[in-house]
Amino acid sequence: MSESERKLRSIRTWMAGRNIDGLVLQKVGSFAWATCGAASYINIASSEGVATLLITQDHQYLITNNIEAPRLEQEEKLVEQGWEFHLTPWHVNQATVSELGRELKLAADGPFPNAIDLSTDLSRLRTNLTPEEGLRYQDLGKLCSHAMGIAARAVRPGQTEFEIAARLAMEAEQQGVQAIVNLIATDGRIAAFRHPLPTSKKLEKVAMLILCGRKNGLVCSLTRMVHFGPISSALQRKVSACARVDAAFIGSTRPGQILGNIFERAVSAYAANGFPDEWQKHHQGGAAGYEPREYLAVPGSPELVIAGQVYAWNPSITGCKSEDTILVGETHNEVLTEIPDWPKIIIDGIARPLVLEM
Questions:
Q1: Measuring CA to CA, which of 3, 16, 186, 284 is 20 to 30 A from 272?
Q2: Is the Cβ–Cβ distance between 168 and 147 less than 8 Å?
Q3: How much of the chain is helix, strand and coil, in % rounded to 5?
Q4: What pTM value is reported for the model?
């Protein structure tokens, strides 16, 4: 049985358990998930694609217009996967999904007429990755870490954040990875903003580079920092503490563990390392997949960690952050976005990145 067939069987079992007759998938991430990595976007800033899927217990429909159909058929090979194409002219309003779903109890991955919004439940389902998705994630992690490594080492004082972002995007995109999140902060902006959109500010001493890279629908996240000149003892202390919190996250993220308990261990690590309140200033990450985070870990999160899932933790202390994407294995966790020649610290057998001194 192919990956596509196994995935559809899993989706239909999930639907039957919720007494759903038809599932409507409009989001770019949902489309990629259900089609084993196909792309339905044109505008990468939009969360909704140019094609919609409708899955029932005995049909798998793909609804799009005459512009998009040739690529989806010829390059994405979706007819070969068994998708039944329903086309409308580009200038005609699409009512095909509603027509095909008439008299069915529908659910959707977001708001849709006469359908139950099960987007939250679907985000949980998407994190249960197939072995093939795990292999694609390993490939993506290598590509993202390669892009980050080259871009970070190309940083120089006097460059603007725009220029640094452009280099990071170029290194990712030329490998077929979309830089869907590309955040850059230099000097004082690192401490001022947790989500620093790049600006025209010029680098003086220190830069933080943040990348969420997407390929085949899957998303890897990582952050690295570079510094010119001696690193202050205050920054060194923060970086070390942040790395220890991250190691607590990674070490605790094992099959059968409850997410809320993992979160509490990390909160304790913040306190043990002298920064008890910093976890409240930014989210800490969570399960990844077809979104940078399919869902965030919060106090009391009830979800169980399952082997084969991917997590991206991002503990931060004002002025620094530690972030990589990990694949949970049966016997150990694999850091997918590790940069082999990056400076690091080993904490309880777990390697965490330090600041690269240039």
A1: 186
A2: yes
A3: 35, 25, 40
A4: 0.96
